[in-house]
Design a protein that fits this description.
The complex is a heterodimer of chains A (196) and B (89). With 196 residues, chain A is an all-alpha fold. Chain A is 64% helix and 0% strand. The termini of chain B are far apart. Classes of the chains: A mainly alpha (196), B mainly alpha (89). Chains A and B meet through helix 1, helix 2, helix 5, helix 6 and helix 8 of A and helix 1, helix 3 and helix 4 of B.
């Protein structure tokens, strides 16, 4: 049995990775921080059982995932993400009955500049956190971690790659809309522009 | 002729698999005449590009910011207290 590293070094070693993952699943920063703390405390208690089959980081992320699931089970009412049916409806409303866009597609001014803004990344994480749970997991595995289609279908028990493509397309469409509404074409900015 | 909805689907799939020649030709023609889809295309690419930096912040500081110093200290202290408690047992 292999031993874990000194727990007093955990925050420095793994804190950021756990926090980044948690922020893509939780409602806000303070909740994400709480999840990280709970994960470390649970890991402390269970550290004798660490088998060493996986890396320490993978083991900790596994605990974090369980903590997040527990959290939403306990606080059902505050579930922040949309459910999949209402999301599909919302996305379908972006098209008319002939399949043409029924929403205006507003351009994004110099989007790469957003990458330099810390707040942009928090908004992006929040947009992912608002996706239906299954879609958020799918998007993270595919786009953030870059896993292959086959690996993802197996992990998430998706029956066909075709299903996966449809789901990914919905996730991306939703995220595009979320970034548009919460960052690139925010109402407050629009109003400011109008005032000027 | 594919609708914008179908084009949107195809644009997304283009990020996951190699599209066939026929599909690529249909896409190209549609994007030339449809400004809305060509705008959607650019934004979709941006979402995918950004996602890759989310968990792995690069030198430019792109990606989800790390735990704040304040939270790091708080969590470290909590772990330390727990370890001290264990020792006293």
């Amino acid at each position: 049995m292999s031993a874990v590293s000194d727990p007093s070094t955990w925050v420095a070693q793994h804190g950021d990775a756990l926090f980044r993952y948690a922020l893509m699943k939780m409602r806000d920063e303070s909740q994400a921080e709480d999840m990280v703390q709970e994960t470390f405390l649970a890991a402390l208690k269970a550290r004798e059982k660490f088998s060493g089959n996986s890396s320490e980081k993978t083991w900790l992320i596994g605990i974090l995932k369980h903590k997040i699931i527990d959290h939403f089970r306990k606080h059902k009412r505050e579930q922040s993400s949309d459910d999949i049916e209402s999301l599909t409806e919302q996305l379908d409303r972006q098209f008319d009955h002939t399949g043409h866009w029924s929403i205006p597609m507003r351009g994004w001014q110099e989007p790469e500049q957003a990458h330099e803004d810390k707040e942009f990344w928090k908004v992006f994480a929040a947009c992912i956190a608002h996706l239906p749970d299954h879609l958020a997991d799918l998007f993270i595995l595919r786009e953030v971690k870059g896993l292959s289609s086959e690996e993802i279908c197996k992990l998430l028990e998706i029956s066909t790659t075709n299903n996966m493509w449809v789901m990914l397309s919905r996730a991306r469409m939703r995220l595009r809309g979320c970034l548009d509404a919460r960052w690139f074409n925010r109402e407050s900015d629009q109003q400011n522009r109008e005032k000027r | 002729m594919l609708s914008c909805k179908q084009i949107g689907e195809l644009l997304s799939q283009g990020l996951d698999r190699k599209l066939s020649l026929g599909e690529r030709i249909k896409l190209k023609f549609h994007l030339i005449i449809c400004k809305t889809c060509s705008c959607y295309d650019k934004q979709l690419q941006f979402v995918a590009r950004s996602a890759r930096s989310l968990m792995q912040p690069n030198k430019k500081g792109e990606g989800i910011p790390p735990l704040s110093d304040e939270a790091s200290t708080r969590i470290s202290d909590t772990i330390k207290q727990q370890l001290d408690k264990e020792e006293r047992k």
